[in-house]
Design brief:
The protein is mainly alpha-helical. The chain folds into two domains: 93 residues, no CATH class; 139 residues, no CATH class. It contains nine helices and no strands. α4 packs antiparallel against α6 and α8 packs antiparallel against α9. It is flat, with a radius of gyration of 23 Å.
């Protein structure tokens, strides 16, 4: 990668910005390709498909037939798609680093100190969302959908559609659990405040209720409540994080930050 120089304020000419962006994108694409290859072999060698199919077998009480496919090429491309998805998840820290390396020179020191912990927190929250979806939301949803109208229908699941449904649900919950990270970053940039979040609490609860109902169909009381509780908790946790970050920003505004080249800044 070409070494592009910046001035003392982290600035560079516009064309150099484009050149750096091009290299960041190329490194990210290379990471996705390598991650997809690794993910494909992980799917083949470490039983990833079995992990994704197990909730279906458990929902059917262990008496389910194998998933079916309707095209000779479907098993291969199914494994490939799952491998690519797994690979993208594995290399996502590299992609996030490339984005961060491109954007961080334009941020102030206090913004960097707030955003870096948010990125680490995002990894934990994403994993927590996926785990909750797999162990709680997915089994309940499958039991409801598979036995809905069972007096009229017998389930015969197509492999491609089943894996598409499962992976979308897992990734969706992982993304939804990133809400505190988004609010942390917006608070660090001064775009939202705790007062705004408290004022919009009722609107947020309505949106959370709608999302919980749409993403986990089933019993309108139990399942929706199961999904709502952690999301409402995450919203309240986000307000707390916003309070902490906003107070620090106000303290810096009152006291003032030392110059970047001062002894205190080192």
């Amino acid at each position: 990668m070409a070494i592009l120089t910046r001035n003392s304020r982290g600035e560079m000419p516009f064309l150099d910005h484009l050149e750096e962006l091009r290299w960041r994108i190329l490194w990210s694409l290379l990471a996705i390709v390598i991650g997809s290859v690794v993910g494909y072999f992980l799917v083949l060698g470490f039983g990833v498909l079995e992990i994704l199919i197990n909730p279906y077998y458990e929902a059917m009480g262990g008496e389910a037939d194998k998933l079916v496919f309707l095209s000779p090429t479907e098993p291969f491309f199914l494994l490939l798609r799952v491998g690519i998805l797994l690979g993208v998840i594995l290399v996502s820290p590299i992609i996030v680093y490339q984005i961060w390396a491109f954007l961080s020179p334009a941020l102030e020191r206090h913004e960097k100190r707030a955003i870096v912990p948010a990125l680490y927190l995002g990894v934990v929250l994403f994993a927590g969302g996926v785990a909750m979806s797999y162990y709680l939301a997915l089994p309940v949803t499958l039991r409801f959908l598979l036995f809905f109208g069972d007096e009229y229908f017998d389930p015969m699941l197509q492999a491609g559609r089943y894996f598409s449904f499962v992976t979308r649900l897992l990734v969706a919950f992982g993304v939804l659990f990133e809400m505190p990270v988004v609010i942390m970053i917006l608070s660090a940039l001064g775009l939202v405040s705790p007062e705004f979040l408290r004022k919009k609490r009722r609107h947020a609860i309505v949106i959370i209720t709608i999302l919980a109902s749409v993403m986990s169909p089933g019993d309108l009381v139990t399942v929706t409540a199961i999904m709502m509780i952690p999301m409402v908790f995450l919203y309240e946790f986000s307000i707390l994080l916003s309070v902490i970050i906003t107070r620090r920003r106000r303290d810096r505004t009152i006291g003032g930050d030392p110059p970047d080249d001062s002894v205190e800044a080192e």
